[in-house]
Amino acid sequence: MIGITAVKPFKKRLTTRMGEVEYTNQDVFFFENGIYGFEDLKGFVITPLPSENVPEFYRYFQSVEEPDLSLIIMNVVFSSKGEGIIKVKDLAVHFEKRNLKPSDVSIYLVTSIHNQDGKQRISVNTKAPIILCPGHQKGWQVVLDNDAYLVKHYLV
């Protein structure tokens, strides 16, 4: 009898402005409608930032179709009561629409670094979070219908 061996995922390389990124198809999150401002780009991978001085909850969100496009994203962590920079209850309609539970997904916010008056400030887009479903390699960027959320929510 001939044994069946597992096929290793085919690795791909992408040369970005931040260096080489190696990934497999299982690493790519597919966005049917793209993300805001980049609707034609559908595939993204999450990679670590190249600096050791950056907290682990910040990552690059790298397009696999456009090597020059990478965004900094921040992972959202919720308390046991569903509280955080975004509240789970405000995402509920988006979860229900896609038949997801909060435990099925990871939530990320697009992060920007601004230089104002000689100081660096960091903001996150709480108005349009990115929902990733690692079990299915799908993603969505949604708009929250709540004026409490801002495109530029300053952290620092």
How would you characterize the overall build of this protein?
20% of the residues are buried. This protein has 156 residues and is mainly β. A hairpin with a 2-residue loop joins strand 1 (12-16) and strand 2. Strands 3, 4, 5, 6, 7, 8, 9, 10 and 11 form a nine-stranded antiparallel sheet that branches. A two-stranded antiparallel sheet has the order 1-2. The model has no long low-confidence stretch (mean pLDDT 89). The protein has one helix and eleven strands. The protein is 6% helix and 37% strand. It has a single domain, classed as Roll (BH3618-like), CATH 2.30.290.10. It has one helix at 88-97; strands spanning 12-16, 19-23, 29-30, 43-48, 58-63, 70-75, 106-116, 119-124, 130-133, 138-141, 153-154.
Layout of helices and strands, plus pairs?
Layout: E1 12-16, E2 19-23, E3 29-30, E4 43-48, E5 58-63, E6 70-75, H1 88-97, E7 106-116, E8 119-124, E9 130-133, E10 138-141, E11 153-154
Antiparallel strand pairs: 1-2, 3-4, 4-5, 5-6, 6-7, 7-8, 7-9, 8-11, 9-10
